[in-house]
Structure formats: C-alpha cells, structure tokens
C-alpha cells in the first residue's frame, strides 16, 4: 500500500469544513426571505390580535386587508404620505423619510425608559364597513428586566381600549412574563385611556374591584408578583398616549372631526 501524504487528513478536514460552512451560509441566505415573510405574518397577527379580530382558520394576509397601514410624524401628529400612494389608499413611506430617524429623549421626558424616540410611527387603521372602527398603535417601554413591545388597539372614539397584544419582552415567565397572557390582556377591553379633560387616566392597580366604578373604568389589574413589570406597563401607556407619543395624532384627528369625519 502506497504511503499516504502526511497532510492528507489535514486537507480532508479543511475540505469538509469549507463544505459545511458553504452549506450553512447557503441555507442562511436562502432562508432569509422565508424568515422575513414569517416575521411579517407574525407582526400582522399581533396587530389583528390587539384589535380582537384575528381568526385562526383564515389566512392572515386576507384578514389584514381590513387594515390600512399609515405613517405619522409623531411630533405634529400628521399623516406622512406622498400623493400617489395616498390616492391608491395605501399610503407608504416616501423614500426620503427614514423610519429610524430618532432623537435622544431627555431624562425627564423618558418615563417609559426607551432612550430614543423615532420621528415617525406606523399606525394601523382598522376598517369595518368602510368606516374606521379602531386604530392599532405600536408601543414599547421598560419593564423590570427588558423592553416590552405591544400593540394597543383603541376605538375610533380615541379613548376606549379595544385590546392589547404584548408580543416581545424579556420578563420572567410566570411573573412579569404574564403580560402576554391572553386572559390578562382581555381585562383591557373597554377600559378608558383619557379622562373627559384629555388627561391620561389609565392606570394599573393592585385590584380594581376596590375602586369605584368611575375609577375602575380606567384601571387594569396588575400582574400578581410582578409589581415592577406592571408599573412599566402603566408608564409606557402614559408615555405613548401623552404629548411625545400619539396625543398630537389624536389632536389632529379631532381637528378633522374624528376618524370618519
Ligand atoms: C427570579 C426573580 C424573577 C422576578 N421577575 C420579576 C418580573 O419579571 N417582574 C416583576 O415585576 N417582578 C419580578 N420579580 C419580583 C420583584 O423582584 C419584586 O419582588 C416584585 O416586583 C414585587 O411585586 P409584588 O409586590 O407583586 O410581589 C422577580 C423576582 C425574582 C426573585
């Protein structure tokens, strides 16, 4: 038997390593569009869930056709749209507008602990019989361990909550992680955000059953054993429905005589 080249095992390992890494790289690149599509479906599902209209047995894309995605400038509350896309009813972001353009928040402004605030935000208008029935808003804020992300659905009256969907967080499972529990989230339905004089009255309390019916209309029960996460939820609501969040948007809508005005 001829002597093997002493470097043969080394070359074999090298070829195998190259082969495997090429395989992994190809798979990663090849799967990227699929992952992106899944992320998009997941996002739409969360928005539908917040609005309380998600149906398990129907394609998400079909259900999402009831929702119009718009972009607003947070500070002015005005819709951002180029005329062409607005005319088609599918307002999309003009190329010159970067969604990640953001500014650092001052410490006293940053009650939700998000550090930077984007200049623009998506808003999702949910239609029913050609009328805007509710609006779903993306919100986020610091809990005990993590930034929690949610969609909040508000009735077109701009004060009554229709639902919420916390979809990403790093809170402790069974404690703060219960923000994603559908049973807890269902307690948000029909609660109110703004008092008649326009203040953010919404709060998370230990037990709303101890409150008067007038107070309880603005209260959601906190998560047991997770007071700090619950406080984070309350402050993120105060932030996003306040002057730096979506309040200017609601002011604009009111000026126009409401969502269907
Ligand atoms: C391992 C561990 C994980 C915890 N995770 C959370 C959490 O995710 N959210 C939270 O608010 N509190 C969490 N806590 C509890 C807080 O430290 C604190 O005790 C609690 O928020 C007080 O809430 P309570 O007054 O409802 O008991 C955790 C505690 C431990 C020991």
The strand count comes to 10
Small molecules bound: flavin mononucleotide
**Domains, number:** 1
Main sheet record = 6 strands, antiparallel
Distance between the termini: 91 Å
The percentage helix is 25-40%
Mean pLDDT across the residues is 91
**How are helices and strands ordered from N to C?**
HHEEHEEEEEEHEHEHH
What gyration radius follows from the Cα positions, in whole Å? 24 Å
What proportion strand? 15-25%
Structural class by helix and strand composition: alpha+beta
- Low-confidence segments: none
Number of helices: 7
**Mass-distribution shape:** elongated
| Spatial order of strands in the largest sheet | 2-1-5-6-7-8
Short description:
The protein has 261 residues and is of the alpha+beta class.
Describe it.
With 261 residues, this protein is α+β, with helices and mostly antiparallel strands. It has seven helices and ten strands. The protein starts with 7 loop residues before the first helix and ends in a 6-residue tail after the last helix. Bound molecules: flavin mononucleotide (FMN). The site of flavin mononucleotide has 12 residues, from helix 6.
What attributes characterize this protein structure?
10 strands, 7 helices, binds flavin mononucleotide, 33% helix, two-stranded antiparallel sheet
Fold topology:
Elements: H1 8-50, H2 60-64, E1 67-73, E2 79-80, H3 83-87, E3 102-104, E4 116-118, E5 120-128, E6 131-142, E7 147-155, E8 161-168, H4 182-186, E9 203-205, H5 213-216, E10 219-221, H6 227-240, H7 247-255
Parallel strand pairs: 9-10
Antiparallel strand pairs: 1-2, 1-5, 3-4, 5-6, 6-7, 7-8
The structure holds flavin mononucleotide.
The site of flavin mononucleotide has 12 residues, from helix 6.
